Each structure stands twice: as structure tokens, then as C-alpha cells.
Amino acid sequence: MTKARIFRPAKNAMQSGLATSQNWHLTFEPETARNKDPLTGHISSSDTRQQINMSFPTKEAAVSYAQRHGVDFQILEPKARKRIVKAYSDNFSFDRQEGNWTH
Length: 103
Known about the structure:
By secondary structure, this protein is mainly beta. It is built from 1 helix and 6 strands.
């Protein structure tokens, strides 16, 4: 039976928005090891399922697809974002907690 991972990818460090990290993805685990071509040094595999990356709008849609097609899956839940809400004026507050004033 084929194994798959269902996950929501993390936000790219080079972007500020969350547009590409809202969908859930289903990717297949490799069934065979990758091997190195002795002549060219390129790495290849005979397992073509490694190239598949399906995108779903919800986790339930991805799970439903995997169950319909008999794919054994593992769900990787995303970590919750820790947000520190601050205002710009907090940088100049007299009762500021972080660091000491240098000017």
C-alpha cells in the first residue's frame, strides 16, 4: 500500500503574505531509494510518484481523496503561529521592558 503525507506547507521566508500556504498538499512517500548515475552523477529514481504534489482547499478534501483511492496517509498538522502584537509607539515608551535606552 502506498503511503502519503497530508500537510499544509509553511510560509516562505521571502514572502510576507500567507497566500501560498493556505492549501493542504498530498505528497507520496518514496517507495524506492534514489540512485546516482555513474556516468553523469545525476540522481534519479524509478518511482514516479515522488513527482506528484496535489493541492486541496481543505484537509477534509485531501483525506477524502486518499480514502477513495486507497492511499495510506499521515496528517502533519501545522504549528500555530506565535504573534507578538506591538505598536510602533511602543518603541518610545518610558516603561519599555526590552533593552535599555542608549540615547
